Amino acid sequence: MTTVLIADDQPLQRFGFRMLLESQDDMTVVGEAANGAEAARMAAELHPDVVLMDVRMPGLDGIEATRRIVAGGGRSRVLILTTFDLDEYAYSGLRAGASGFLVKDALPEELLSGIRAVATGDAVVAPSLTRRLLDAYVHHLPAAGTRDHTPASPDPRLTPLTERETEILRVMGQGWTNTEIAERLHLAESTVKTHVGRILAKTGSRDRVQAVILAYETKLVG
């Protein structure tokens, strides 16, 4: 059973989320918070698997609440859900440690699958934002002309990876899902999940989003 804490300042929005989540046999809502301070406090008390977090709330906003929840070191993972498809919200939320970002016009099945993905340690980002986020991140890396021309040594974060794991990290960085990786590399999906888990463990990545950023940082994807 996946336990969920709903954080949203709109009572009707919380009610709608609760109705949807509790219609599922594998989910239960353990609490509701009307602002970020309540969300951080209740996450520390209730230890939900997933915190469904709004961004714009009175007092402490969802970004700072996410930062506090993640800094607490508990097992709760945060899925940010907002009305506003804005890059700064997504970028700030993921930097704060959120495991996913969706907009509120997502279909119910997209929200449910997103919660399940985050609960199992995966990550999810709204398709409309994924490419823009990665492009924005790449623009923060040093330009080619500013680096010296000595041959680059292998990034130490990649050295623990096998050749197959490096290949899978590369295509993860290109946005392939586990199903696509399995189909295109002729692997069983369970094998892909095992490889992804090992990649996260070996590189110290909290989730798939961090692994994708690593693929860009280390120039596996350009």
UniProtKB/TrEMBL annotation:
Entry keyword annotation includes DNA-binding: yes
Keyword flag DNA-binding: yes
Domain Response regulatory: 3-119
UniProt keyword terms in alphabetical order: DNA-binding, Phosphoprotein, Transcription, Transcription regulation
Listed Gene3D superfamilies: 3.40.50.2300
SUPFAM superfamilies for this protein: C-terminal effector domain of the bipartite response regulators (SSF46894), CheY-like (SSF52172)
Top-rank taxon, per record: Bacteria
All residue ranges annotated as the HTH luxR-type domain in the record: 154-219
Pfam families: GerE, Response_reg
Residues the record lists as 4-aspartylphosphate modifications: 54
Annotated protein name in UniProt: Response regulator transcription factor
Record organism: Streptomyces anthocyanicus
